[in-house]
Design brief:
Blueprint: H1 2-9, H2 23-55, H3 60-110, H4 112-116, H5 121-152, H6 155-162, H7 164-171, H8 174-211, H9 213-219, H10 222-274, H11 280-321, E1 342-352, E2 355-365, E3 370-374, H12 381-388, E4 396-401, E5 404-405, H13 411-414, E6 418-421, H14 432-436, H15 445-454, H16 458-461, H17 481-495, E7 499-503, H18 511-524, E8 529-533, E9 545-550, E10 553-559, E11 573-575, E12 580-585, E13 588-593, E14 596-604, E15 615-618, E16 625-627, H19 635-649, E17 651-661, E18 674-681, E19 684-691, E20 695-698, E21 701-706, E22 709-713, H20 720-729, H21 742-753, H22 767-774
Parallel strand pairs: 3-8, 3-9, 6-7, 7-8, 11-16, 17-22
Antiparallel strand pairs: 1-2, 1-4, 4-5, 9-10, 12-13, 13-14, 14-15, 15-16, 17-18, 18-19, 20-21, 21-22
Length: 776
Amino acid sequence: MLRSKILERYRILKLYSVLRPHWRLLALVLSLSLLGIALSVVSPLLTRAIVDEGILRGDLGAIARYAAALAALSVASTVVGAVSGLYQSILSGRVALDLRSKVFAGAMELGVELYQEGAQVGDVVARLYGYVDRVQRFIVGSFETAIISSLRLAALAVVFSLNWRLALVLLAPLPAYVYGLVRYQPRMRTLFVKRWTRVSRMSAYATSLLSSVLLVKLVGREREEAKRYEDLAGEVYNAEVEVARFSAKVYPWLNLLLTLSSVAVTFLGGLMVARGELTMGTLTAFLAYVWQVYAPVQAIAGLVPQLAEAEAAYEKIAEVMEARPRVAEAPDAVELRVVGRVEARDVWFEYSPGRPVLRGVSFSVEPGEVVGIVGPNGSGKTTLVRLLVRLFDPTRGAVLLDGVDLRRVRLSSLRGQVMLVPQEPILLPGSVAYNITYGAEAPDPVSVLYAAWLCGAHRFIIELPLAYDSDVGEQGRILSGGQRQLICLARAAMLRPRVLILDEATSNVHVELEEVILTRLLGYLRDSTVIAISHRPTLNKFVGRVILVSDGRVLGEESGGLRERPPPPPFLRVVDPRGLRVLDRGAWLEAEVDGVRLAELRARLPFPLTNPRVLLLYRDPDDAIVVEDWSALDEASRAAVARHLVKEHGLSLARLVSVLPLGGGGPRGGRPLSLSVVLETAEGRLEVDVPASNLLLLDGVLVVVAPNRVYIVDPEASDRGALWSARAVAWEPPSPFGGYGAKWLLEWLPDLGAGGGAASPPPRGQVYGLLRASAP
């Protein structure tokens, strides 16, 4: 009983288990610390020898010998301290990494349940960083402090050997000191809980408001929201001041006890020297040991507020890290090769007890069938399809896939084979291609192009500045709502699921394009089961039957207009570069393939940074020629294509001169979160202002993405200091293909800029001369 109370009271102690994987590193840190202690214990003894055997006896040789030994000891202590500090930082970082990984994994495992319970993104992020930071500092710091400080107290033996009466005076205040700390800790823990609770509220509020800044601007609530944030930040400030005030009532007075005790030691020691009971050297050494005794005591005492703060932070972390999701994999879960039969048997579901959203829903969908689900808003359609992909489990009843209860299917075999495309598009920060391929294993460029073409996204993607390598921004905000939906549909097509569920997935797409997309998808996924939710009357044309839902119940069914699946859509036109001839016609290109001439063509790289060898030639983006490796073209064709690519993408080789944060308060009134980049190109020296996210580090090559221009930085010609600064702030975005083509571009750009078609680029020393010679 007592043991359980202790564990519950000090739950933070459970976290010491994270040190176990790093025991070798911990042992090294402790060993170095012990060596440092040993060196520090010797130092006062050398000081005593200098005083007693050198200064008082007038022995210059003794002074020199002991001073040299003391200097060597100081050098050794400095080296040991530096190495110990380095490895302690490494240990601390690894512990923080483990903790953050566990908290993040817990959040991912909980998934939508986390937010169903009312959690906010900002609160979770605060736990990932601030809370973990406090806990890991305590774990690493306190472990070492407790052990090392305890060993430092071995100096007591030396103190007693020097003079036992002064040693007793030295120890006199310690009982009162310990009593004060014991009384202090519980109240301090409560104050830290209060502080971290307010930090969570402030972080959650800031994240939600910054995510909804458009709404704030539209209704003109900037001042009110700024005032609200100031109030929340003020609550954090008040909580911190309350902690400081309480600490001020305890710590200064406890430390005063130690200071007065050291004064007493000095006074009494001085009297003993005056009486001849103690040598001056011994008193000097004793005074040096006073704070070698008190410092460990203060260090251990300093753990008390750290423990209180770490406990408060850990409580917040544990809520995520130790939570168990309601949707969990059963011990007897089975792998399932999905055929596509979906069935709901008397399904009931409620988010809140006593308030059912679904009330005994039953229906079945056969493999390869296309079914629509319609009903008024709030009828339970979205909840139903979330159960079909097992984001939640039914309160009562069962959802079956191929006759197997979803609760008995391995989640790994369910994900990817059963795909939901929700009405609200979900995009991650990164490129268009990264979002399309998210969840796909080893995607290839042609498959990405085809998935985007199937879903009507290719036409707008290819016209983006970096085409498929263009960053979509947070939550895809640089794109329209319809464009985001098209990318999500392309992601689903890329995964080619056995069961595809569309929950108003084309609600922001115009009707004509919606019909094209559905026709292509139904032809492409001919054997897949498709379940579609839509309020548009055109849905009836693309489904075999319609399930009517209202107030959480199935009211009945109606026949749909689909009698037969559309034929498979054509594949992209991929050509062998060895059989393709390209001619430069000034503003356009002309191509000859399979004996057919195609005029007025544009040349674009769909993946200019991640896979620049892939080339598209087209007049209409939806009817393009795909060349998987245009570097294999003949020399003349390659030169013709190169000149157009430089013009289309604004590719330019550049020497980096400097990188400086711009901010909003500079002399030029720059934009916040932006960089001022000074470059030297074929056209001369220029300065460009770009968002910090547009400075990229791709396989070690810096790329500056400016409006209508992409600068590949030549590291051999650039300023070393500027390269150092740029690499410190550059971002390496995720690549859909596991790598980048920036190095390839770096080698080819001199050739491209010079308008040549040689198999290898000219020497790097001639690069800028060639670029300037070819510049208009």
